[in-house]
Amino acid sequence: SELVTTPNIDLIIETTKPTLIDEEPFSTTTETEQYQLSPVLPDVASTTSTTKSTTTAKLETKTTTKSLSFPTRASRVNPAIKLAAANLGGGRRSYQSSTNCSTDNSLQANPKCNEIKYQRPSSTRGRGSAHYSTLSGSEAPQQQTNRGTPPTRSRPTLKPSTAIVSETKFVDIYAYPARRPAPVYPQPTPDKTAAKCRKDVCLLPDCYCGGKDVPGDLPVESVPQIVLLTFDDSVNDLNKVLYSDLFEKGRVNPNGCPISATFYVSHEWTDYSQVQNLYASGHEMASHTVSHSFGEQFSQKKWNREVGGQREILAAYGGVKLEDIRGMRAPFLSVGGNKMFKMLYDSNFTYDSSLPVYENRPPSWPYTLDYKLFHDCMIPPCPTKSYPGVWEVPMVMWQDLNGGRCSMGDACANPPEAEGVYKMLLKNFDRHYTTNRAPFGLFYHAAWFTQPHHKEGFIMFLDYINKMKDVWIVTNWQALQWVRDPTPISRLNNFQPFQCNYPDRPKKCNNPKVCNLWHKSGVRYMRTCQPCPEIYPWTGKTGIRSSRIDNEIDE
């Protein structure tokens, strides 16, 4: 409808299902230089129905040739205020947020009196309508419960505190560059088609064919039963209590050192102050990529940005030395074949732990990728070329109580009670312990432990094996060091890789910074004791000034 502004006339406005915000119309005056709201005329009538609403209001105006001035407000709102003032009654916005604003001139300087209220138009599509009113008590009209879509909101403006987010300092994360152990014996040509492994040329400590044979040909009774406890994905407050219950309750290995685990950390939602705390306590940090995506189609460069990029992020914001981030696990166990393993070789990673092995009686020991895989490829594409010195910590499959196979503990058909969980864990452990004592993997996501009986049954099992004098719960890198240098149980108390003295690791992060950063149309709060980045770290854009992956610097 067209609005004609003439003093002392009735104005008819017809819209499709409007919902009144206020029962009082506007009145203008020229008593001051400002545009002000005056008391309304009482002659207001409104009728509503399910299809149309008609409002009759009496407006009284006085003409003026002076320009209107407006209270100072954010620049993004001023144009809307001026537009509504120039088209009284013709828009879908109302400035009267309170009757006090129109009656008390002293309140006009308050920006809240000029706040725009959004009135959602009614619709006959059955989605409901949002109704707003500033009236209260008996004056408030009858309202229906809003069961539909709420009105859209403007995107919040990110204004990080300069006291928290500061300019990124230059920290050289490559002060301790990644490296693999130097080879002792001649190695096959890398990135060439792998030949079948020969035990007479594949020699420790550089190379091992894998399979059921015990490294060093030690008698089984002299071999420690190594247990590998690993967790995938982000580290944050959701799993902080779990890790405290597992690792801060006095559980130690036979040499008196605390039990330890390997954390395959993905970037999004990770609290890097907690990463630093776990690292300072003796746990191993490994890469689980930045974006946690399926990677079977990734190029080698993309794999490097994902896996190598997460290694840089762990070093820059988690305080983890780059040389201590030696391993990776592919998200969803979706490996990338030769492209992924060529990246590991070129980037000086020591091991991967993403390949499930179906055969479990007896289970397989870790092996190197100098030669062809000795087992079937469960999740292709698997590597077919030679990558000397790169180890594989195989994910030997479990059997649940129904006979099904699974590569991770939380992928099995778990019993509905704690006692059943305990029995299933013990059954799979015994298959390792009573045969060749190949490392037994407890591969989990922390979310599995949110079921109380899962956690209860697991802790029952953990306490049981922790009392055994020939069981060692260590990290993947510690296990590989034992395979490289097989040491009998009688000398393990003095085995250097199993010790727990970490003088070169950072202290725990007790007072982290909170970095406010924009990512994926929302604000992310990244906690760290290291300098905050200027952008939210992501694939190919880590925000690390010394990054060799973002900047594509070759050694």
From TrEMBL:
GO molecular function, one term: hydrolase activity, acting on carbon-nitrogen (but not peptide) bonds
GO biological process: carbohydrate metabolic process
SUPFAM superfamilies: Glycoside hydrolase/deacetylase
Region feature (Disordered): 89-160
Protein name: Chitin deacetylase-like 5
Recorded superkingdom: Eukaryota
Feature: compositional bias, Polar residues: 94-111, 120-160
Record-annotated NodB homology domain positions: 225-334
